[in-house]
Amino acid sequence: MNASDSVADRITAGRAVYARNLGVPEDEAESTLAARAGAQYAREAFLAAGGPGWSGTGLTDRDRSVAVIAALVGQHVVDARLITYLNAARAAGVTEEGLAELTVLLTAHLGQPAASVAMATVLSTAPLAVLLKASA
């Protein structure tokens, strides 16, 4: 996908990106995002996600998820938006240790308040098996 693709093609590609990131079937992506942010926002988000940022070949989904996590933490976002990209990062192969290391790295650049609440979100959304292993 690139910026010269048709609007319809970019929206279709963006819907697929959001479905993957939200962890829902493609036919549910629009209603899921619209429920969170409204139909107009969803359409614009699909259009953007269908472009080179999310559909280009220079970055992996892992790279993109880590970049979005860093941006959200930098803005003190720790709600469903951060959880979406924590789960996307996990699905793309980022481990719990990797997420913890990312928050430590972000502490050095963003400060402790933003990173500490993000780490609390990482821990509260960790898969149960990881939490049980850590407590053993």
UniProtKB/TrEMBL annotation:
GO terms for molecular function: peroxiredoxin activity. InterPro entries: AhpD-like, CMD-like. Pfam families: CMD. Residues 44-120 form the Carboxymuconolactone decarboxylase-like domain. This is 4-carboxymuconolactone decarboxylase.
